[in-house]
Write a structure and sequence with these properties.
By secondary structure, the chain is of the alpha+beta class. The chain folds into two domains: 3-41; 51-173, Rieske Iron-sulfur Protein (3-layer Sandwich). It has helices at residues 3-6, 9-41, 166-173, and strands spanning 51-56, 65-71, 84-91, 97-101, 112-114, 119-121, 128-130, 135-137, 146-147, 149-152, 155-159. It is elongated and about 90 Å long. The model is unreliable at 168-184 (pLDDT under 50).
Length: 184
């Protein structure tokens, strides 16, 4: 047997096929591994979980619900107008507030406040919420998502960053003792 017989056309193409498949596998493995390991290696931008002012308390009269906006503390130069995030502020009394995300808990469509009926309504699939953010009817399984707030030197501030999701409710039902709340 000569070395020439060992390198037949079939064996060369088979080795080339194995090498080609290994290269494609390595190329595909990189983004998959980055996705799997991203919670471990990803760094959060500064300001991720910060408190942002919505304005003075005088802007939110007692017994009314108003639309407010804040600028996301985690902004890229290309974000433009999308970095301005709206939310609904309900002033229960002079020191007690509820701050709701504008997104419906069903699929994230923006809800609107109707003061005549005292309801938040979602135009996409007919979700309806009471003035306190609780689910009234429609496809959403829960009430509106609520921001943590505090009153600081006459200003209403909210904690932005991780948005509460249905996972928070499920975690409280099974008594998860982690210090961080789960996020979808």
């Amino acid at each position: 047997m000569t070395p020439r017989d060992d390198l037949s056309r079939r064996s060369v193409l088979a080795k080339f096929g194995v090498l080609f498949n290994a290269a494609i596998g390595a190329i595909l493995a990189v983004p998959i591994l980055r996705y799997i390991l991203s919670p471990v290696i990803r760094e959060r931008k500064p300001g991720y979980e910060s408190w942002v002012s919505l304005g003075s308390l005088a802007q939110f009269p007692a017994g009314q619900t108003r639309l407010a906006t804040y600028r996301s503390p985690v902004v890229d130069p290309s974000d433009g107008e999308t970095a301005n995030i709206p939310c609904w502020v309900r002033c229960v009394d002079s020191e007690k507030f509820q701050v709701f995300a504008i997104n419906c808990a069903h699929l994230g469509c923006p809800v609107r406040w109707f003061p005549q009926s005292g309801l938040f309504m979602c135009p996409c699939h007919g979700g309806v919420y009471y003035s306190d953010g609780a689910r009234a009817s429609g496809p959403p399984e829960r009430g509106l998502f609520e921001y943590k707030y505090k009153v600081d030197q006459g200003n209403l501030t909210i904690q932005v960053g991780e948005m509460p999701t249905p996972g928070v409710t499920a975690a409280s039902l099974i008594n998860i003792s982690n210090k961080r709340t789960p996020c979808a």
